[in-house]
Amino acid sequence: MSQEKINQRAKAWAAAKSDFYRRAAIAGGVSLVLAGINLATSPDKLWFWWVVLAMAIGLAMRAVKIFAKVKVEEYQREMIEKEQAKDQDQSPRG
Questions:
Q1: How confident is the model over 50-64, as a mean pLDDT?
Q2: What is the rounded distance in angstroms from the CA atom of residue 90 to the CA atom of residue 49?
Q3: How many domains does the chain have?
């Protein structure tokens, strides 16, 4: 893999990771605002948890997409390297 391709992938991963953290911070802020509104207007009925749950599910799905992809790519790269090493060991030497 060329150095330029490695740099592009690293930049894309860093951008995805920072985007995830930005979204998490926004979701946290929105959750606090909604909790304040809920507690100020109807403290006997806590509806803001449903919104928080929906945002948490969305963030969890995004986290899996971003962070699990890295692990899968690393695993695939390791498996390819093992197969290449095995093929080189089994090739006839003349």
A1: 95
A2: 59
A3: 1
